[in-house]
């Protein structure tokens, strides 16, 4: 295979802070190379440097694409290459997609810029791309805005946009982070198919080592901005030479002892129903049911895992239980009927239940420091604490989630995706609530940090008697953290029960399909 991309002695820094040190690797035409490592190891900075996407980064070394040196070419030439010859799928689709344009318009813009297609033909191709990436009803979704899609559907729309011009090199930065296991398998199969059809090379950046084993030909392992080991996947996974690689491979979530709990439900929900309406013409509207009469209970100190494909209603259920969207049905936390509260009473009750959202960059204010973000709720719900006590509580919580004390005065954009997720967890934990909704809280974390966060959540649960609603597409994570599991499909519960029983002896074909898809990554 011909060498398509060559990176030699690449250095990248933000002012005096060096993020990437002497990185070298190659990608041949039609080859799949994985770049793995912990959050903050420099994977994304390296990927962005290849297309010079971050103007604040100082670069040195060499980046050659098809023999052309990219670090010195003018911006006009880079714009010709971006999207057409080299494309990138970003880690956080809600931040990368433009919120004021439809998904179709954003795909069509790429086709218009590089191919000059007429609007009708561009729209036809946009619909075909959405269909190929597995989005249901592409003729309808092409006119949807990013906020109207689930997290997994937004990620698939990003993939469709990146593939629009059939690039020679696709840089995929955590392309399956927001996807459930069945769609992960579909996307990896899709990338395999496109690579065969187009001869496309893929630089696959991920923290999920199972996906690397399933997908990549070669792998480069990064730590602290340096490549510490490279080789074929079989070599590196079979006989890792570096201690850090061995540590990564050993970092799998431990199975939770899910012995039945005896406590009465702390959270009790009955007949939760949600329907979304969409305007049709001047006076009409279309009502689409999303959740169909779901009931559940979560005892004190226990975790209920909620699993299902993208669009199954997992996040909608969580938001309905937290009174963040309108829903029918009863929601009781201890003795308080949350569905009857409004105004100041509802706001005051939120001290007892908090949320960690799926996309940390979108949920953290870019204008506030970490200390202000984490301390905002403390100032609101604990007015009796003075400034010194509030700051100390914030510092203690940041330390608990594994962040350094100097994080308190920095801004979200200065952190990696995994570090931002830990900030979001700290913001919820600082109030010591009774219940926390965790919507994909480990999706942005590498294997070692994922294990650390799961262990942290267990310790906090035991220490404070916390109850968790844990939404995840990662079945290994659910097995590690959840005592009970609820399986959703099309807004309905298809199976529920103790996690061990559901995983070892699923009674429903849909649950068996989810578990079978999860095994594709092992």
TrEMBL record:
<dbReference type="GO" id="GO:0005524">
    <property type="term" value="F:ATP binding"/>
</dbReference>
<keyword id="KW-1003">Cell membrane</keyword>
<dbReference type="InterPro" id="IPR003439">
    <property type="entry name" value="ABC_transporter-like_ATP-bd"/>
</dbReference>
<dbReference type="Pfam" id="PF08352">
    <property type="entry name" value="oligo_HPY"/>
</dbReference>
<protein>
    <submittedName>
        <fullName>ABC transporter related protein</fullName>
    </submittedName>
</protein>
<dbReference type="Pfam" id="PF00005">
    <property type="entry name" value="ABC_tran"/>
</dbReference>
<dbReference type="InterPro" id="IPR017871">
    <property type="entry name" value="ABC_transporter-like_CS"/>
</dbReference>
<dbReference type="InterPro" id="IPR050388">
    <property type="entry name" value="ABC_Ni/Peptide_Import"/>
</dbReference>
<dbReference type="InterPro" id="IPR013563">
    <property type="entry name" value="Oligopep_ABC_C"/>
</dbReference>
<keyword id="KW-0472">Membrane</keyword>
<dbReference type="InterPro" id="IPR027417">
    <property type="entry name" value="P-loop_NTPase"/>
</dbReference>
<dbReference type="InterPro" id="IPR003593">
    <property type="entry name" value="AAA+_ATPase"/>
</dbReference>
<dbReference type="GO" id="GO:0005886">
    <property type="term" value="C:plasma membrane"/>
</dbReference>
<keyword id="KW-0813">Transport</keyword>
<keyword id="KW-0067">ATP-binding</keyword>
<dbReference type="GO" id="GO:0055085">
    <property type="term" value="P:transmembrane transport"/>
</dbReference>
<feature type="domain" description="ABC transporter">
    <location>
        <begin position="5"/>
        <end position="249"/>
    </location>
</feature>
<keyword id="KW-0547">Nucleotide-binding</keyword>
<dbReference type="GO" id="GO:0015833">
    <property type="term" value="P:peptide transport"/>
</dbReference>
<dbReference type="GO" id="GO:0016887">
    <property type="term" value="F:ATP hydrolysis activity"/>
</dbReference>
<comment type="similarity">
    <text>Belongs to the ABC transporter superfamily.</text>
</comment>
<feature type="domain" description="ABC transporter">
    <location>
        <begin position="267"/>
        <end position="515"/>
    </location>
</feature>
């Amino acid at each position: 295979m011909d060498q398509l991309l060559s990176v030699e002695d690449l250095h990248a820094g933000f002012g005096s802070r060096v993020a990437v040190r002497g990185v070298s690797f190659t990608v041949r035409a039609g080859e799949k190379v994985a770049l793995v490592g912990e959050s903050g190891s420099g994977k994304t900075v390296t990927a962005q440097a290849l297309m010079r996407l971050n103007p604040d980064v100082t670069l040195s070394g060499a980046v050659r694409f098809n023999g052309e040196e990219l670090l010195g070419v003018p911006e006009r030439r880079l714009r010709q290459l971006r999207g057409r010859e080299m494309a990138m799928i970003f880690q956080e689709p809600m931040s990368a997609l433009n919120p004021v344009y439809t998904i179709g318009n954003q795909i069509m813009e790429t086709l218009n810029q590089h191919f000059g297609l007429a609007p009708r033909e561009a729209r036809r191709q946009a619909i075909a791309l959405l269909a190929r990436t597995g989005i249901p009803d592409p003729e309808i979704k092409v006119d949807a805005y990013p906020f109207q899609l689930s997290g997994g559907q937004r990620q698939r729309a990003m993939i469709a946009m990146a593939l629009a011009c059939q690039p020679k090199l696709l840089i995929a930065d955590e392309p399956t982070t927001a996807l459930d296991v069945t769609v992960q398998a579909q996307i990896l199969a899709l990338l395999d198919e496109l690579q065969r059809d187009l001869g496309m090379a893929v630089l696959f950046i991920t923290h999920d080592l199972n996906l690397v084993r399933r997908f990549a030909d070669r792998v480069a392992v990064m730590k602290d901005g340096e490549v510490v080991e490279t080789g074929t996947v079989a070599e590196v996974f079979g006989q890792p030479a570096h201690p850090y690689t061995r540590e990564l491979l050993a970092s799998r979530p431990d199975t939770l002892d899910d012995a039945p709990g005896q406590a009465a439900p702390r959270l009790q929900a009955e007949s939760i129903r949600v329907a979304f309406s969409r305007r049709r013409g001047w006076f009409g509207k279309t009502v689409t049911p999303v959740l169909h009469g779901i009931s559940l209970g979560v005892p004190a100190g226990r975790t209920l895992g909620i699993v299902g494909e993208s669009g199954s209603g997992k996040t909608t259920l969580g938001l309905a239980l937290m009174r963040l969207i309108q829903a029918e049905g009863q929601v009781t936390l201890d003795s308080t009927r949350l569905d009857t509260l409004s105004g100041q009473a509802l706001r005051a009750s939120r001290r007892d239940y908090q949320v960690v959202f799926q996309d940390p960059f979108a949920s953290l204010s870019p204008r506030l420091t970490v200390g202000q973000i984490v301390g905002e709720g403390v100032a609101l719900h604990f007015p009796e604490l003075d400034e010194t006590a509030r700051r100390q509580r914030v510092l203690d919580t940041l330390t608990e989630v594994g962040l350094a004390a100097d994080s308190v005065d920095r801004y979200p954009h200065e952190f990696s995706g995994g570090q931002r997720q830990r900030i979001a967890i700290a913001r919820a934990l600082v109030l010591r609530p009774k219940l926390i909704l965790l919507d994909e809280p480990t999706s942005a974390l590498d294997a070692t940090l994922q294990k650390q966060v799961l262990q942290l959540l267990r310790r906090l649960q035991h220490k404070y008697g916390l109850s968790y609603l844990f939404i995840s597409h990662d079945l290994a994570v659910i097995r590690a953290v959840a005592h009970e599991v609820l399986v959703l499909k099309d807004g309905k519960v298809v199976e529920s029960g103790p996690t061990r029983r559901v995983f070892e002896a699923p009674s429903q074909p849909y649950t068996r399909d989810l578990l079978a898809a999860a095994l594709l990554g092992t």
